[in-house]
Amino acid sequence: MSWCKNIHIFSKTQKAIFKKLYKNKNILNVPLALKDFGKSRKESTNNVIRFLFFGAIRENKGLEYLIEATNKLSDKYKGRFKVQIVGKFNE
């Protein structure tokens, strides 16, 4: 990283770590872009939208963005969506 002027980071926790390690660098925190997988071929029977976070649960995967969004949406859309976090966590 010594030759980099700007470093693009995907999570707040990762940004905090890099700020300590690389004090003279410009650390940019931009979450991963959402992908569009097209229209679902399966119809929902209960009108509940499910969000799935899967794989190894690590600091750099942006889980905090899902949690923040869930907190903001929970009052307005109570009971209309579910969040599932599934994966291996070392701590």
Straight-line N-to-C gap: 28 Å
Quickly count the domains. Answer: 1
- The strands making up the biggest β-sheet line up spatially as 1-2
**Backbone shape:** elongated
Rounded radius of gyration (Å):
17 Å
Q: Report mean pLDDT, rounded to a whole number.
A: 82
Q: Helix- and strand-based class?
A: alpha/beta
Strand proportion, as a percent range, falls in 15-25%
Biggest beta sheet summary: 2 strands, parallel
Contiguous uncertain segments of 5+ residues: none
Number of strands: 4
The H-and-E topology, N to C, reads as: EHEEHE
Helix content: 10-25%
Count of separate DSSP helical elements: 2
How are the SSEs ordered, and which strands pair?
Blueprint: E1 6-9, H1 12-21, E2 26-29, E3 49-54, H2 63-74, E4 81-86
Parallel strand pairs: 1-2, 3-4
Top keywords for this entry?
91 residues; alpha/beta; two-stranded parallel ribbon; 2 helices; 4 strands
Question: Your description of this structure?
Answer:
With 91 residues, the chain is α/β, with parallel strands linked by helices. It has one domain (6-86). Helices cover 24% and strands 22% of the residues. The strands form two sheets. It has a two-stranded parallel sheet with strand order 1-2. Strands 3-4 form a two-stranded parallel sheet. The mean pLDDT is 82.
Outline of the structure:
With 91 residues, the protein is an alpha/beta fold. The protein is built from 2 helices and 4 strands. The protein starts with 5 loop residues before the first strand and ends in a 5-residue tail after the last strand.
